[in-house]
Structure formats: C-alpha cells, structure tokens
C-alpha cells in the first residue's frame, strides 16, 4: 500500500469491502485486507448470556458515545501485539472528526472500563476494535452498540474476522461474495449512529437481542 493514504481513500476502500492493517505498532506500511470469509453480527443476533444480562441491568456504569474517541482508540492499541500503528491511529482520528468514525465508551466511577469503535457509511457499520479493562467491559459496549445500530436503521455490522469470542456473542461468518452483496445494499441506505431522541434504558438493551 502506498504510504500516502488519506481519510477519503480509506472511505473509498471501505465502500469496496477493504480495510487496512499494519503488521505491528512499529510497522510503517499498511496493507488492504478483503478476507475470503467475513465476520458479521446479524443485527438481531447478539447473544446476551444470563451473566451479561445481569451486568447490563445492574447499571453500575455509564455509557457515552463519541465522548473520548481518542482514549478508546489508544486503549484498543494498548496490547502486546496490535495492527494499530501511528498511521492507522491518525486516519481514524481524522475519520472521527469528519463524522464517519464513532466510539462507544463504558465508564465506572470515572474510569474507562470498556469500549468499541468503528466506521459508519450508509447503513453499514464496520467494527474495528474493542477493549476491556473490567469484567464484561467490552461486552457491555457491544450490547449498547448493537441496540444503537438497530435503532439507527443499520443493516450490516461487519466484524472483519470471526473470533471464538465474537462467535460466542452471536457473530457468524459469510463468504466474501455474500459480504460484498450485503455491503452494496447497505451503502444504498441511510442510517443514523445518533438517532434523534434516542435514549435507551438498560432494560431495553438487555431485552433487545437473543437471550441465553
């Protein structure tokens, strides 16, 4: 990949079904990825376990949106092995300022305990990364994100790859061609990451997806 990747080029790549990765934090080159099998979350298929449901309803946390995107991005990159290098961080910070990249933050007693961020284009949300600093931190972020995406009219939630952790939460894998077809349809629609009047309660988030 060329060293000069602009936010505009990155948006075009997403619309083509591509996403960027770096080999490591220190790597100076990026490469485009278009997996043969793509992970997605069916919008009605997020699996809420009994323990997660209790954690949601306990409501001993606060959820915010786009309040500290930079902190979520930094926390996602703060691990021994990461694909988020300085160039990728700068690109997503730019997309955030342009209104295309969003974060969901979970706080407890003023501490950031979990979060997720991703890119929204049309009715497609491309989940990029998440982190957890407390039990259920990232799961809480995903549950509130999933509820928000449904409320905002999104039709595609892309997880890029399917990990055992995401599969346990309801994510599935689809062939590349099917993903591209779903993406093309989603890009023809409009969705809102911050729907007018959207004020979810823990009870609605806990009841909004499949239980188990």
Q: Can you summarize the main beta sheet?
A: 7 strands, mixed
Cα Rg: 16 Å
Broad structural category: alpha+beta
State the total count of DSSP E strands. 11
What can you tell me about this protein's structure?
The chain is of the alpha+beta class. It has helices at 7-15, 50-58, 69-77, 86-98, 137-152, 164-168, 176-187, 202-207, and strands at 19-22, 30-33, 37-40, 47-48, 62-65, 101-108, 111-121, 124-132, 156-160, 172-175, 210-211. Helix 3 runs antiparallel to helix 4 (86-98).
Top keywords for this entry?
single chain, 212 residues, alpha+beta, Aminopeptidase, 7-stranded mixed beta sheet, two-stranded antiparallel ribbon, 8 helices
Draw up the topology in text:
Blueprint: H1 7-15, E1 19-22, E2 30-33, E3 37-40, E4 47-48, H2 50-58, E5 62-65, H3 69-77, H4 86-98, E6 101-108, E7 111-121, E8 124-132, H5 137-152, E9 156-160, H6 164-168, E10 172-175, H7 176-187, H8 202-207, E11 210-211
Parallel strand pairs: 4-11, 8-9
Antiparallel strand pairs: 1-2, 3-9, 3-10, 5-6, 6-7, 7-8
Helix pairs in contact: 3-4
């Amino acid at each position: 990949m060329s060293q000069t990747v602009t936010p505009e080029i990155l948006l075009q790549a997403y619309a083509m079904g591509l996403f960027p990765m770096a080999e490591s934090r220190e790597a100076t080159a990026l490469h485009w990825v278009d997996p043969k099998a793509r992970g997605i979350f069916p919008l009605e298929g997020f699996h809420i376990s009994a323990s997660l449901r209790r954690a949601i309803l306990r409501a001993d946390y606060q959820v915010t949106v786009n309040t500290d995107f930079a902190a979520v991005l930094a926390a996602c990159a703060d691990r021994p092995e990461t694909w988020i290098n300085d160039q990728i961080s700068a690109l997503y910070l730019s997309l955030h300022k342009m209104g295309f990249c969003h974060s969901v933050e979970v706080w407890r007693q003023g501490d950031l305990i979990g979060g997720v961020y991703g890119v929204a284009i049309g009715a497609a949300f491309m989940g990029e990364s998440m982190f957890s600093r407390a039990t259920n931190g990232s799961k809480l972020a995903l549950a509130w994100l999933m509820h928000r995406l449904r409320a905002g009219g999104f039709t595609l939630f892309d997880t890029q790859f399917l990990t055992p952790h995401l599969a346990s939460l309801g994510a599935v894998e689809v062939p590349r061609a099917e993903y591209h077809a779903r993406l093309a349809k989603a890009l023809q629609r409009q969705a809102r990451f911050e729907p007018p009047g959207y004020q979810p309660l823990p009870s609605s988030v806990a009841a909004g997806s499949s239980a188990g």
